[in-house]
What does this fold into?
Amino acid sequence: MHQLRWHAILKQWIVFNTDRQNRPQMPANWCPFDPGSGKVPDHYDVHLYANDFPGFSPSADPFSPNESSGLFDSTGPRGACDVVLYSPEHTLPPSKLSLESWRKVIDLWTSRTQFHSENPDIAMVAIFENCGEAVGVTMPHPHGQIYAMPFVSPIVEKELESASEHAGACLFCDLLNEELKQGTRVIAENAAFAAFVPYAARFPAEVSLYSRRHVRTLLELTDEEKTALAELISIVRRKYDNLYGFLLPLMMAVKQAPLKQPEALYHFHIQFLPLQRSVNKLKYLAPIETAFGTFLADTAPEEMAEVLRGCEPSTV
Ligand SMILES: [Zn+2]
Ligand SMILES: [Zn+2]
It folds into this structure.
């Protein structure tokens, strides 16, 4: 079964691909992402690899939901899911990627966003990374993912709604300016980007990275800005590894405006959502968070920001 089913109560699509259950066990000591595996070029810096068990796929039925949505609606998950290999080196953690490599990763994110923006089937491009065994990553090879989706995801819908209801020019720009003015939650910055622990962070050591300039997607970033983005991603990732002295398991989400809504108010940013609560405790989502959607946090964002600001490499 490969389809989208409508969750009539939460008003969102759930993606089903039951083939994913039958993913083969990979032989030990063999990695499809390594040069020489036969699955990737023998030489590469960064490489785009089509997901073998995609949630969204170009060959799936088109996304054409019923206008009058019923209780049990379904439609096709046409889209694309690709894996971005950050490096040919199997054991290199993403936090140890060179600036040059991060820049190449950003260029690949950008060219894929451009590619999908020309496809009428695609509504948004979601770029993300799961890093560390604690967040369920079985594959150590440094990689992230790009989902090209036929609809705008519910959280981005919510963000667009908040931005459209905001009285100022851009909700995100206003938040960033206020963060920079207060300064207590800023952890690193450069000429084009700033990273801060959000005022109402939901995850321990959560960090948002905003472009200083009002840009909506990767496609609007200049060359210098992309290099500055590579630098700040690298700084945040290395700070995280110095927080508790080991590679911090985390989720990274690169968020940009929907592709086909030129009037929609949005602001390009990256969210880092680490799941480590303390040196030896992981944060597991509780029913109040998963079933009710209310997050409980046990660290003051200002205190976490002070610690992260002090972690090497330090820029502010
Ligand atoms: Zn590998
Ligand atoms: Zn803005």
